[in-house]
Amino acid sequence: MLIGRLSMASTERPLSPHLQIWRWGLHMGLSIAHRTTGIGNAVGALLLVWGFYALASGPEAFAGFHDFLTSLLGRLVLFGVTFSVMLHLCTGVRHLIMDTGRGLEIASNRRIGILAILAAIALTLGLWAGAYGFAGAL
After folding, report:
1. Distance from first CA to last CA of the chain, Å, rounded?
2. Is the pLDDT of residue 41 over 60?
3. pLDDT at 26 over 80
4. C-alpha to C-alpha distance for 100 and 108, rounded to whole angstroms
5. Which of 1, 28, 72, 109 has the maximal Cβ count within 10 Å?
6. CB-based contact 111:30 (threshold 8 Å)
7. Nearest to 30 by CA among 127, 100, 77, 98
8. What is the CATH number of the domain that holds 76?
9. What family is it from (predicted)?
């Protein structure tokens, strides 16, 4: 009898709309970006582990790691990881704000989303400008 109830209850549940019905918006893109940057941060963590391993392995291993980081590809990867961390941070703060019940209206949600993107860009560029300014001072 219990099995009959479970199958009957599952057929009476409303189905959620398919993705074709929903219009894509900034809030959906940022939610996906938050998850994607989490994966990008894992790549950054692997890069950090590689650096620690190279440092512990000796000068030759660290020289190879340093050569990669100072190459064009290495700098692009580092810039991408930096932006990934900053966007993940900013969209995480956005989620925290929304968890308090604020920013759930469409207009305010859009403003917070745009602010998160601009803040991530500003933090990334500021960090890189500061790093190059600090390196140039040495």
Report:
1. 78
2. yes
3. yes
4. 14
5. 109
6. no
7. 98
8. 1.20.1300.10
9. Belongs to the cytochrome b560 family.
95 is in an annotated binding site: no
Model pLDDT for residues 45-86, shown as the tens digit of each residue: 999 999 999 999 999 999 999 999 999 999 999 999 999 999
Domain range spanning residue 62?
Answer: 26-133
CA neighbours within 13 Å on the CB side: how many for 126? 7
**What's residue 127's pLDDT?**
96
Burial class of residue 115 in the structure, from the number of CB atoms within 10 Å of its CB (0-12 exposed, 13-18 middle, 19+ buried):
middle
| CA 82 – CA 87 distance, rounded (Å) | 9
Report the domain count for the chain. 1
Residue 128 falls within a domain, yes or no? yes
pTM above 0.70, yes or no: yes
Tell me the average pLDDT of the chain.
88
In 3D space, the residue among 66, 69, 93, 91 whose CA is nearest the CA of residue 80 turns out to be 69
**Amino acid making up residue 19:** L
